[in-house]
Amino acid sequence: MRERGYTIDSPRGGGKSRLADDAGVHRAAVSRLLNRQSMPDLETMRRLAVALGVPVRDMLIRSGRLAEADLPVGGSPQGNGEADGPRLSPEEAAQRMGVPPELRDTFVRVAKQFLPEGG
């Protein structure tokens, strides 16, 4: 919060109120969070994360609510996006999903539209 310019150490600094206003949450929610009196609900956490410019994942980890291993990046603890092995190609996915052979070309063309470049 300090890194984002919110003065939260001084009772008169106004940083808590400004953060609450920027996030669209009640000022008491920010005070309770900072005083470790309560953990905000997910929507409040999301709004604060947006106001602070940080991912909700980081907010949950920094708050001590969850460990980094509880929220792996990309679906795996290693963060490589390979939760159950290498990513399937659209052709492999069609086969494993039982897409009929006469529809596989269409399935593959559509699926490729949703993949990142080079995917």
From TrEMBL:
<dbReference type="InterPro" id="IPR001387">
    <property type="entry name" value="Cro/C1-type_HTH"/>
</dbReference>
<feature type="region of interest" description="Disordered">
    <location>
        <begin position="1"/>
        <end position="22"/>
    </location>
</feature>
<dbReference type="Pfam" id="PF01381">
    <property type="entry name" value="HTH_3"/>
</dbReference>
<dbReference type="InterPro" id="IPR010982">
    <property type="entry name" value="Lambda_DNA-bd_dom_sf"/>
</dbReference>
<protein>
    <submittedName>
        <fullName>Helix-turn-helix transcriptional regulator</fullName>
    </submittedName>
</protein>
<feature type="domain" description="HTH cro/C1-type">
    <location>
        <begin position="19"/>
        <end position="59"/>
    </location>
</feature>
<feature type="region of interest" description="Disordered">
    <location>
        <begin position="67"/>
        <end position="102"/>
    </location>
</feature>
